[in-house]
Amino acid sequence: MLFAAAKIFRNCINSGVLPRAGISYGEYNFIKTNFNTNNIYGIAVTKAVSLERKGKGCRIFIDDNLQKESKVFISNTEIFLPYKNHIDYSEIDIFEWPLFYKDYYFKIIDINKKKEINPEIRELLNNNCRLLAYLTHSPLFSWNAKSEDGRIHLSVTIEYLKNVTNKILIKTGMHELFSEKQDP
Questions:
Q1: Domain ranges of the chain
Q2: Do 128 and 136 form a contact (C-beta atoms < 8 A)?
Q3: Is residue 30 within 8 Å of 38, Cβ to Cβ?
Q4: Which of 24, 2, 14, 16 shows the shortest CA–CA distance to 143?
């Protein structure tokens, strides 16, 4: 589920869409419709929708119960961090989707002591940088500049992606990936 959510967010940004989501743990039900689809409803769905409204930017807000009930959450705390909403200074946990790319997610234990460049981390960082360049320069996001809410959503997304990418660079010491090579 986490890899799918990260892939959806990356694909949406590449298509010019700035998504935001909430993920919750709990009871839910399906209603079969006449269109061969299902409608989902229940306490968890209502909670997920209310979580999505808590902040700005391309983030995935998560429910506290999800962390308590999932073994993945307990063993990988670096992929779930608190988010401070600067409007009302409330805190809510978010799933760090920029740490996921293809079938890899960034883990502190992947950093070796020799600081050799891990190919999966390199690919993750390169993709995050491509997304940042796309968010900054693509004409698909020019519509965001036409409204205050759009500008906020875009700038918060850029700031978020930069911060997550910089944290990886600092932890790995892989700054040389993005510096100019100097001739001796």
A1: 2-175
A2: no
A3: yes
A4: 16
- Chain-centroid distance of CA 93 in Å reads 12
Burial class (CB in 10 A: 0-12, 13-18, 19+), 38: exposed
CA distance 144 to 140: 9
Instruction: Say how far apart CA 171 and CA 78 lie, in whole Å.
Output: 12
Residue found by looking up tokens 């992606």 in the block: 161
Which residues face 30 on adjacent strands? 40
pLDDT at 181 over 90: no
- pLDDT, one tens digit per residue, over 49-100 is 888 888 888 999 988 777 666 666 555 667 777 777 766 777 888 889 999 9
Q: Residue 170 in 3-state DSSP?
A: helix
Please give the Cα distance from 158 to 58 (Å, whole number).
Answer: 9
Q: In whole angstroms, give the CA distance from residue 169 to residue 184.
A: 25
Separation of alpha carbons 170 and 142, rounded Å: 31
- Residue 137 to residue 93: CA distance in whole angstroms: 30
CB-count burial class (<10 Å; 0-12, 13-18, 19+) for 95? buried
